[in-house]
């Protein structure tokens, strides 16, 4: 198949594009390479896919990978209503995987406009292009943050998610509503994936895994929010990638008769890990103790996340299962190679 992967210079998008190529698909990667975090990390991810920095810097021009002719890349904003439809018309995609978004819960408190532009306006443009250019299936990233202050554990896709506590979460909930509307009105398949705290090699520098490791290595204190009384369903990047690729390659609506065109899945490790245990795993992998500064709960954060993935198991016979110590060690090994060696 020919598949558009948006956010291809991002953490998850990079791995999904790489895996789809390994499975024999033709992939067009799209990213605007914004400066929310170090753009050099984004360029280096693209370099792994055979796209040079000089090619990636040019807007609205497709560059072909030097190492895999099945991969090409375009730097483009999802908000660009002029060039995005031209890309769809020119490339004739079979499927679309929308992983591009303005990420980060806390940053959404400071820069709300960026989230509306990318996550709402940009997503609408994707939906419109899927509608007009007859895309068979749209797979898109949602987030565990849509569960907000839900107290029932573990989180199930049937739970009420009408009470988000950050603008980021609200934009992700809006994506699900918009996808439902377009699936109903225009008859194409949409699958939303609620990711739970993804971590691993090539991870974002604003996420806990990176922040903790970087601080410990550089003898700086780590910020521990809610005095350490937090739990997260940490999900290793390979597990996320496997779930996304399975769904792209064979949507459940092609497997089961009578299924809705609109689907939502949790993709998480089905375990809630205490933040202090997560920090201990990093300390063990580094062979070094962290200096901890305790802070109160941050606005927009929740105390606990935990994914019920029964639907994923039933429909795809798949459940993420990488142990936390294995995943942490993998990240630490990558961090040392990329930043130290």
From TrEMBL:
EC number: 4.-.-.-
SUPFAM superfamilies given in the database record: NAD(P)-binding Rossmann-fold domains (SSF51735)
CDD domains found in the cross-reference section: UDP_GE_SDE_e
NAD-dependent epimerase/dehydratase domain boundaries: 3-268
Keyword line: Lyase, NAD
Pfam families (UniProt xref): Epimerase
Entry GO MF terms: lyase activity
Keyword Lyase: yes
Name of protein: Protein CapI
């Amino acid at each position: 198949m020919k598949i558009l992967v948006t956010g291809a210079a991002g953490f998850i998008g990079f791995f999904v594009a790489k895996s789809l190529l390994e499975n024999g698909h033709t992939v067009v990667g799209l990213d605007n390479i914004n400066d929310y975090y170090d753009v050099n990390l984004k360029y280096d991810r693209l370099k792994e896919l055979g796209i040079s920095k000089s090619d990636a810097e040019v807007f609205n021009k497709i560059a072909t990978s030097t190492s895999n002719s099945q991969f090409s890349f375009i730097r483009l904003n999802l908000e660009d209503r002029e060039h995005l439809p031209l890309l769809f018309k020119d490339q004739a995609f079979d499927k679309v995987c929308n992983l591009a978004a303005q990420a980060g819960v806390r940053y959404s408190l400071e820069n709300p406009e960026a989230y509306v532009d990318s996550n709402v306006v940009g997503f609408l443009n994707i939906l419109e292009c899927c509608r007009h250019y007859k895309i068979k299936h749209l797979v898109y990233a949602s987030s565990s943050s849509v569960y907000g202050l839900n107290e029932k554990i573990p989180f199930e896709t049937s739970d009420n998610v009408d009470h988000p506590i950050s603008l980021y979460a609200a934009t992700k909930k809006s994506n699900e509503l918009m996808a439902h509307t377009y699936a109903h009105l225009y008859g194409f398949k949409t699958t939303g994936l609620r990711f739970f705290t993804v971590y691993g090699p090539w991870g974002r520098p604003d996420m806990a895994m990176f922040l903790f490791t970087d601080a410990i290595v550089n003898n700086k204190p780590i910020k521990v929010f809610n005095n350490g009384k937090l739990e997260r369903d940490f999900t290793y990047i390979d597990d996320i990638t496997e779930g996304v690729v399975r769904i792209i390659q064979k949507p459940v609506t092609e497997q089961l008769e009578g299924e809705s065109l609109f689907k939502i899945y949790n993709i998480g490790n089905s375990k809630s890990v205490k933040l202090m245990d997560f920090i201990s795993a990093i300390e063990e992998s580094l062979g070094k103790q962290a200096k901890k500064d305790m802070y109160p709960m941050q606005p927009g954060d929740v105390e606990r996340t935990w994914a019920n993935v029964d639907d994923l198991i039933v429909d795809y016979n798949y459940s993420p299962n990488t142990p936390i110590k294995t995943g942490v060690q993998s990240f630490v090994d990558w961090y040392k190679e990329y930043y130290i060696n």
